[in-house]
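To whoever is on call:

I kicked off a structure prediction for a single chain this morning and the downstream step that reads the tokens threw a length-mismatch warning. I double-checked the sequence; it's 369 residues and nothing unusual in it as far as I can see. Pasting both halves so you can look.
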Amino acid sequence: MTAVLSRGALNRATLARQLLLARTEIGPLHAVHHLVGLQAQVPHNPYTALWSRLAGFRAEELSSLIERRELVRIGVMRGTIHLVTADDCLVLRTLTQPVFEAQLKRHRDYSPVLRDVDLDSVVESARHLFDESPRTGPELRRLLGAQFPDVDPPALVYGAQMRLALVQPPPRGLWGRSAQVSWTTAEAWLGRRLDAAPSLDDVLLRYFAAFGPASLADASTWSRLTGLRAVVERLRPRLVVFRDERGRELFDLPDAPRPDPAAPVPVRYLPEYDNVLLAHDDRSRFISPNDRGALRPVWPIGWGAVLHDGVVRGIWRAAPDSMLVRHVPLSRRGLAAVAAEGRRLARFLGVAPAVRLEPVSRRGPHRGG
């Protein structure tokens, strides 16, 4: 009989894989590899993500890995920018090309413009430009527009972005730095070719190791790839199978950690975008419907999530004078733990180590101490 895993069991299992049950001693490069990349469309999000996961994490160490080209910023899963290892860049960008092709076909403005364009010629011209040096968007629009004067320049750039494996080189993504986005190809930046025949089996096994136990729908949500059922069926002899409380089939690695559902979890602050909250079709293991309903109206863009007892119970934003936390009802001890961790994060971010706690009800936020 297939074992049933409760939401609590799923929560603790995924938190253990995500290095959120206890800060670990491994280095940033190892952590990014284990997590199959970090969401990075907001350049400093990976720093907060790793601060919450690694013991003694130093932002400068992560920046150094980016400067040394051991980590790169590139669009992969779901077509979004991730910080991944150089090796994973060459694998994941090839595997996720169907995601970019789908985006290219359905873009409301650019797809009609590019329908009759020789996009292969556009891509080859863009590749030559990137081989010369990284290019900003305005540069690329100007240069490609001069070569293809009958086509809308932004459409040309979009087509090249969808077809080429483009990385965002530093100083973009460095700690304490800000810079206009520029791109170059992964091949030019890393001096290596993309993996022409990457193993989707291996990547899916890594997904279960970092995010499991998980369903087929969860894996599809994480990657936005289709056709994963055949891969899971091929891997089934190497997996263990569970069911959740709604009867859905969940897959996992036999030796992956599955802690006691009652295992204690410290308060954790997650950045605005963190894959632990984005990598499942069913996110109930991390937030209850009631808490989601209470927080959604007061959860604007730019706010991260606060985990208390392993689930989202609040949101946060750093300002120069304090950390602001909006939260659903918590015990006095819970509020103290949220405030203490917030002060530690504030020191890391370089803002005043003061935390303002703002209770939230279904009627909206209330000012509080």
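Update from on-call: the warning came from a stale cache, not from the record. Cleared it. Sanity check on the structure: DSSP finds 16 helices and 14 strands in the chain.
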